């Protein structure tokens, strides 16, 4: 039996759409026989001979989707994996897009950045004794290959020298595009994904990821690629199309971050801040900003060296996960620190732990992304209001799944708020662009000078309009200064969280990840959302559903689709709940754009605490919210999985506390 016949027979053992099986077989035929893929053939043959049918089907049934401005996924062999072919097709499409967007412009210029990743096949997918062209591919390798595609298309690349020990964080890339007046950019990063993942994020001339319909136009160009023009890295350097970055953009970026300062710098020994970049690039932005502002951050030594294997990180290098800061917490206790700050590998997300006492001897409390968003929004509004330099009509921006407490905080300070954005910082960047170009976004009027802060639940903060992606450096400075400001008053961040709950309402925001992997998972995820949109529940966790919104509804507030990328981003369901008395709730469900799972965002909140409320009554209110959020989470997860004939695994409905 020949290889393709064996593949087709093997695919019959898998429960999947026959059309997907045939598509996978067609791609396999190309990769087995075309000269461009000859280097991959030994591993493909081994997988066929080893009857790895599920892995082959998942690797070959589609081209890795060009999602919200790029591709991200497991590095590997096949069109549904990150490799030089899938990257090359993306970059070639980007070249065509740039030529259409800037007709007659010569030279076109892009800024390239990369993180610390290097593929090692930690999942044990391939035969370690056979040649493997993806083995040891680093983000730097990917980026230099991309520079070769740009160069072959006549486009210059601003990139770090090949022997540089530096890295550019995601926010610094955004800033550098604007600083240099480049026409776009590319970041090779998989953010906080597992070590063997990688991805390509494309940026426009504004330093943001494109939004619909521009992302659809670029995606169409990528899909139409049949030939990838490419030039070896050494030839790119010789040709002069590699424009090596000097320190000017970096120094300007650090200065922009420092200008976000809201309080006088700390005196020697006044505050202790422990910082960990979790083996990522954060030391070259967050570390420098904190140091320059006098905070003298205490680095976690075993996590300070950039290392794409993240060897000393528990679980995952993601500030959303408390366990990743276990070493930082241990050091903070030894040093009697006030605050722990962590950042993810590409340094756009920020996490933290705050000491419960002002002497550094207390326990440390994990700060969720929702809490950081509320804390920094309140801090910046209140400090600027006290200083008398708050704009006459300040503007706050946040997403549909970020805590509603921010809306109440913003309105308290008389701020305008955009609070219904889709998930993704590119939509926040679009608010700034609309303000910049038209002076208006929806009902909100103003200019970027009126912008104060933007936040999202997944630990993303933007504190200046000069950057157009989430930025941990500015956020780290604000969080450190908030801790310092409170310490000067004899207070702590955990105490401020209590005060915010009393003043603006007690909010419990929780996230459930419904993991669905492979071809079957993609099918079930689609069925789950389609079933819930067709027959939304009347109640969830005992609370009546008083409003249901399907953002794919073209008769709804978002109108007609701006392309398939827009349609995909709007695969988003909102259930609004209310007991008719004092408890409000919301459940949002959407597929992740970067990982094989659906995300259920659950919010349950109370009214603000009124003056004279007995402490016992307020404690009872908080207990009611806590029990309600668990009930809603358990019930919704059960209903969602029932749509695909599944039941929750034990502990799947476990919340953050």
UniProtKB/TrEMBL annotation:
It holds the Pfam family PGM_PMM_III. It comes from the Bacteria. Keywords: Isomerase, Magnesium, Metal-binding, Phosphoprotein. Coiled coil: none annotated. SUPFAM superfamilies: Phosphoglucomutase, C-terminal domain, Phosphoglucomutase, first 3 domains. One of its GO terms (biological process) is carbohydrate metabolic process. Its cofactor is Mg(2+). GO terms for molecular function: magnesium ion binding; phosphopentomutase activity. Residues 137-218, 252-351, 369-501 form the Alpha-D-phosphohexomutase alpha/beta/alpha domain. Belongs to the phosphohexose mutase family. This is Phosphomannomutase.
């Amino acid at each position: 039996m020949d290889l393709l016949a064996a593949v087709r027979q093997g695919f019959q053992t898998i429960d999947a759409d026959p059309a997907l099986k045939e598509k996978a077989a067609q791609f396999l035929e190309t990769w087995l026989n075309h000269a461009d893929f000859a280097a991959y053939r030994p591993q493909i043959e081994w997988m066929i001979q080893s009857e790895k049918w599920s892995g082959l089907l998942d690797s070959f049934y589609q081209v890795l989707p060009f999602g919200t401005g790029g591709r991200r996924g497991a590095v590997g062999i096949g069109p549904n994996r990150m490799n030089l072919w899938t990257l090359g097709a993306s970059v070639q499409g980007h070249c065509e897009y740039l030529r259409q967007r800037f007709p007659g412009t010569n030279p076109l210029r892009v800024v390239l950045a990369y993180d610390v990743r290097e593929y090692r096949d930690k999942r044990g997918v391939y035969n370690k004794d056979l040649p493997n062209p993806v083995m040891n591919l680093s983000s730097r390798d990917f980026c230099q290959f991309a520079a070769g595609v740009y160069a072959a298309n006549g486009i210059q690349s601003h990139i770090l020298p090949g022997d540089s020990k530096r890295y550019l964080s995601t926010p610094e890339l955004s800033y550098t595009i604007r600083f240099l007046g480049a026409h776009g950019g590319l970041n090779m990063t998989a953010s906080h994904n597992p070590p063997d993942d990688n991805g390509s994020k494309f940026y426009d001339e504004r330093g943001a990821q494109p939004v619909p319909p521009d992302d659809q136009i670029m995606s169409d160009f990528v899909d139409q690629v049949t030939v990838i023009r490419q030039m070896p890295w050494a030839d790119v350097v010789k040709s002069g199309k590699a424009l090596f970055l000097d320190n000017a953009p970096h120094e300007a970026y650090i200065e922009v971050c420092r200008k976000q300062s809201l309080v006088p710098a700390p005196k020697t020994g006044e505050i202790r801040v422990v910082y960990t970049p979790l083996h990522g690039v954060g030391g070259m932005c967050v570390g420098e900003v904190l140091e320059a502002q006098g905070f003298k951050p205490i680095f976690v030594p075993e996590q300070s060296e950039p290392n794409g294997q993240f060897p000393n990180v528990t679980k995952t290098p993601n500030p959303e996960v408390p366990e990743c800061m276990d070493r930082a917490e241990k050091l903070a206790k030894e040093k009697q620190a006030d605050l722990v700050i962590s950042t993810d590998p590409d340094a756009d997300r920020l996490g933290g732990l705050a000491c419960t006492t002002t002497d550094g001897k207390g326990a440390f409390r994990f700060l969720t992304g929702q809490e950081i968003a509320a804390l920094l929004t309140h801090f910046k509004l209140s400090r600027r209001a006290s200083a008398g330099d708050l704009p006459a009509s300040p503007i706050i921006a946040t997403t549909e799944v970020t805590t509603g407490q921010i809306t109440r905080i913003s309105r308290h300070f008389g701020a305008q708020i955009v609070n219904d954005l889709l998930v993704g910082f590119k939509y926040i960047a679009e608010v700034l662009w609309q303000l910049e170009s038209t002076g208006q976004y929806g009902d909100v009027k103003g200019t970027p000078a009126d912008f104060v802060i933007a936040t999202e639940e997944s630990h993303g903060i933007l504190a200046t309009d000069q950057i157009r992606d989430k930025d941990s450096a500015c956020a780290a400075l604000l969080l450190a200064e908030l801790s310092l400001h409170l310490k000067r008053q004899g207070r702590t961040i955990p105490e401020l969280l209590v005060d915010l709950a009393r003043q603006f309402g007690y909010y419990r925001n929780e996230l459930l990840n419904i993991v669905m992997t492979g071809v079957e998972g993609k099918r079930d995820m689609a069925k789950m959302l389609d079933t819930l949109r067709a027959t939304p529940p009347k109640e969830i966790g005992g609370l009546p559903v008083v409003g249901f919104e399907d953002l794919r509804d073209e008769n709804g507030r978002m109108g007609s689709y701006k392309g398939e990328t827009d349609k995909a981003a709007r695969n988003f369901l909102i259930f609004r709940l209310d007991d008719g008395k004092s408890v409000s709730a919301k459940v949002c469900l959407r597929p992740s754009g970067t990982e094989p799972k659906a995300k259920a965002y659950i919010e349950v909140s109370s009214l603000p605490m009124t003056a004279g409320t007995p402490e016992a009554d307020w404690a009872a209110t908080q207990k009611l919210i806590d029990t309600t959020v668990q009930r809603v989470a358990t019930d919704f997860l059960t209903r969602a999985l029932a749509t695909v004939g599944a039941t929750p695994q034990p502990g799947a409905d476990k919340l953050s506390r």
